[in-house]
Write a structure and sequence with these properties.
Helix 20 packs antiparallel against helix 27. The protein is an alpha+beta fold and about 800 residues long.
């Protein structure tokens, strides 16, 4: 492989770059939050697929089906008669001593008598070509979404080869799983199935959003759900909607803070009671965590003969649980040739120690481990070491256009999914995990990679899809009517709108401030007072920074330094990061283009600001350029929100958030301009118009005039101007009215009432606003602006109470 022609190397490099670009453009990530440098790593996917022949796949398929039947039988006994414990075929310490054994699930009847709906098995190929089981995952196996993305990406890069080879497709297996879950629900095809995720901070968050979208599930977090009358409900803007089944990606111990971990914020209080009442199907049924212990592998051969009457078709690696004296004494003399693994995770989910390859230990270290195992044998499991087989991978070199094929150790994760009562099928493919060059452990957290898996068939390729062919126009209309927005999605959309508007406003204010400090009016006291007050109120500068009048350069440097302070609630950087966080929680609702622009905007802005501050020059020109690019990207973001989102309650909530933020900020800024007198100066007048993003419109209407009446007409009462307070207030009232129609009683009436409290500047006589009183104060104008600010923050509070927490709206506001 080291002698590939230059053309071949260039071709493979082009394909590798195309693959990398697909992963990046699709926003595929694997989150490693323990890594402060790059918590959101792009998903690592190798160019070459792992190809498995039909004879080899038949061996895997038969062994995996046998394994999942065996594990389900074990669960049925452990949570039923517990005969295996009574006959000492399973040590009680491994089952009832494991924190994953849930006593609350003992004796609970399950739909279709099935505990496991999805199971994953990690396989390694021995030198003789046969496959061995290294580990098994039953709580919430990951990979079903990533392997779909792997297939999509690699099959595009090698499209002719994929189409010409008999590679078995995947969709039929996913459809069988969904059909199975629907059959378990009384509502059948109309059952609402949700995917329960820990949220955006999960390592595999991308997969959860991707899988929910692919399977047509509602993506939910624990806070989206509630249990009422032993039934599970989804919180939506329209009220509570029943949930009939959950595909969970949350570990069992976090599912119900009432009966399991009291500190869990990921689960649903009362969920176990709903399961016991038979009102919700959960895949997988809670309580399977103890099956993931490596120690259990040593007992499966005997259990297979006892429960199934047959030997294991796929052998496990030789395993010794050191909690048994006989196993301990048997394995310690040969410890140097094996792996040492923790028997079970700690209660907090972490491992007491990482798996250790004993052959790499020094004599002293091996002795220390021997003593540790003797002292706490039950916490240690020893497993035979199997050198994993290898597959070819493409390793591009730093100099573009060259590379080489290199072997890397590989582990195969295979999935079995239920397709009927105590019936399963094996997904014809899987996810290959590739170890790094210096390690024998295939771990994504340690920098490993993945590969697509092509299973060759000697029969017909199943070209089934998830497309439903039986939907009638009436059923389609009914489903469209039933499509509700969850309360969590509503809240994130609301704050996405607010933070987008806040970022635009703050970036524009920072731009105006920097331009004013170096402009012709830079020594105008009223203008400096206004930009100083606005910068301080918006959090662009700290309160202890000298004013622009006293120390203009210090004020300017402080503003530039704070632009990207992520911990500062008023900085542009903080708002951009908040936009990304809100958008991350909405990955199943946002287009790929929106997500790409949002992440690029934040990343590039922080990078440019770091360059500005690291140079020590704090260049206003460089800062203005960075703000200009942010303004462009935010305009793209808002354009995508307007053009590429469904016209549903979610978009109304996003727009309401934007209008609330705009009404409050612009009214406050205009009031400050009159209070400081800035609006009566040339520079201040122009700055106010620019902050309202109405410079071109004002000049088109009034040329170079700087008349206060003209200003107030365009910025306050003209409903044709989308930046005027009249237009914003009108649209906010309309959004609130439509949201009130969606919100369940008795919350809709108070929410509708708050819309009536938003003032209508278009209904105010311009003459009343433009004439100062005997003291020179514009009292009517200031009163109107104060009403705008107050009603905006009050509307925000009412929306939060009515739509996000499902609590009664207080009769009086307690402030923003």
């Amino acid at each position: 492989f080291d002698h590939l022609s230059a053309d071949a190397q260039a071709d493979l490099n082009d394909r590798a770059q195309q693959l990398e670009r697909q992963i990046r453009d699709n926003g595929v990530t694997y989150n490693v939050h323990a890594d402060p440098r790059d918590p959101q790593r792009p998903w690592s996917l190798d160019l070459f697929p792992l190809i498995i022949s039909q004879p080899s796949w038949r061996e895997i398929e038969a062994g995996v089906l046998q394994r999942v039947r065996l594990l389900d039988r074990i669960l049925a006994d452990v949570y039923g008669p517990q005969q295996l414990l009574a006959d000492a075929l399973l040590p009680a310490a491994l089952v009832q001593g494991h924190h994953g054994f849930l006593r609350a699930m003992h004796g609970v009847p399950l739909a279709a008598d099935t505990h496991l709906h999805i199971a994953a098995f990690d396989l390694a190929r021995a030198p003789n070509g046969h496959w061995w089981v290294v580990s098994q995952r039953t709580q919430a196996p990951s990979g079903l979404g990533y392997l779909l993305e792997n297939r999509l990406a690699v099959s595009r890069v090698f499209a002719p080869a994929f189409q010409s080879m008999p590679v078995q497709h995947l969709a039929a297996t996913y459809r069988a799983l969904m059909d199975h879950l629907k059959r378990l629900c009384p509502s059948g095809e109309e059952a609402r199935i949700a995917l329960l995720t820990p949220g955006p901070y999960s390592e595999t968050w991308f997969e959860h959003a991707y899988l929910a979208r692919y399977l047509g599930l509602t993506l939910v977090e624990g806070s989206d759900l509630t249990v009422r009358g032993q039934r599970l409900y989804l919180k939506t803007l329209s009220g509570l909607e029943p949930v009939h089944a959950l595909l969970k990606r949350v570990d069992d111990e976090y599912l119900d803070p009432l009966e399991l971990r009291a500190d869990s914020t990921l689960g649903v209080p009362g969920l176990l009671q709903a399961i016991r009442a038979g009102n919700v199907v959960v895949a997988n049924a809670p309580g399977s965590a103890f099956l993931e212990s490596p120690a259990l592998l040593g007992f499966l051969p005997a259990l297979s003969r006892h429960l199934l009457g047959e030997p294991l078709a796929l052998p496990s690696l030789a395993t010794w649980w050191c909690g048994e004296d006989a196993a301990l004494e048997d394995v310690l003399p040969r410890l140097s040739r094996h792996m040492i693994k923790p028997t079970a995770p700690r209660v907090d989910g972490s491992n007491a120690f990482d798996a250790v390859r004993a052959s790499l230990l020094s004599g002293r270290e091996l002795s220390e481990w021997t003593e540790r195992i003797r002292a706490r044998g039950d916490e240690h499991t020893v497993q035979a070491f199997l050198a994993m087989s290898q597959m070819p991978t493409w390793q591009a070199r730093a100099d573009a256009g060259t590379g080489s094929i290199r072997p890397r150790s590989v582990m195969l994760r295979v999935f079995a999914v239920a397709d009927g009562p105590r019936s399963w099928r094996v997904l014809p493919g899987g996810m290959a995990r590739i170890a790094t060059a210096n390690e024998e452990i295939a771990s994504m957290q340690r920098g490993g990679s993945s590969a697509d898996v092509w299973v060759l068939t000697d029969g017909e390729v199943d070209r089934s899809t998830l497309m439903h062919s039986k939907l009638t126009p009436e059923l389609i209309a009914e489903r469209r009517h039933r499509k509700h927005v969850t309360s969590r999605a509503s809240e994130n959309l609301f704050w996405l709108g607010r933070y987008t508007e806040r970022a635009e406003h703050t970036a524009r204010l920072a731009t105006i401030t920097l331009e004013a400090l170096s402009g012709e009016e830079s020594r105008s006291p009223p203008l400096l007072d206004w930009i100083g007050a606005m910068a301080a109120a918006s959090g662009l500068v700290d309160e202890d920074v000298p004013s622009a009048k006293k120390a203009r350069r210090v004020f300017e440097r402080s503003l530039i330094a704070s632009l990207a302070r992520a911990e500062d609630g008023g900085s542009v950087g903080f708002s951009l990061r908040a936009i990304r966080f809100a958008a991350a929680a909405l990955r199943d609702r946002l287009s790929l283009e929106q997500w790409t622009v949002i992440t690029r905007c934040e990343t590039e802005f922080f990078k440019r600001c770091a360059e500005i501050t690291s140079a020590g020059q704090y260049s206003p020109l460089a800062a203005l350029r960075a703000l200009e690019i942010v303004d462009r990207d935010l305009a793209t973001t808002t354009g995508a929100q307007a053009d590429r989102m469904m016209r549903d309650d979610g978009l109304r909530m996003l727009n309401a958030g934007r209008q609330i933020e705009r009404l409050g900020n612009l009214a406050k800024a205009l009031a400050s301009a009159f209070e400081t007198g800035a609006v009566h100066t040339v520079g201040g007048f122009d700055a106010v118009v620019a902050l309202f993003d109405s410079t071109l419109t004002f000049r088109a209407h009034y040329q170079q005039s700087r008349d206060i009446a003209a200003l107030l007409d365009l910025l306050v009462v003209d409903r044709a101007n989308p930046r005027s307070l009249a237009w914003v207030a009108h649209n906010l009232r309309g959004r609130l009215a439509k949201i009130a129609l969606s919100v369940s009683q008795p919350l809709s009436q108070p929410l509708a009432a708050i819309g009536g409290r938003v003032p209508d500047p278009a209904g105010v006589r311009l003459s009343d606003l433009t004439h100062p009183d005997i003291h020179g104060h514009y009292s009517d104008l200031m009163k109107l602006l104060e009403q705008c600010v107050t009603s905006a923050w009050e509307a925000s509070e009412r929306i939060g109470s009515a739509c996000f927490t499902h609590s009664r709206v207080p009769d009086q506001s307690v402030g923003a």
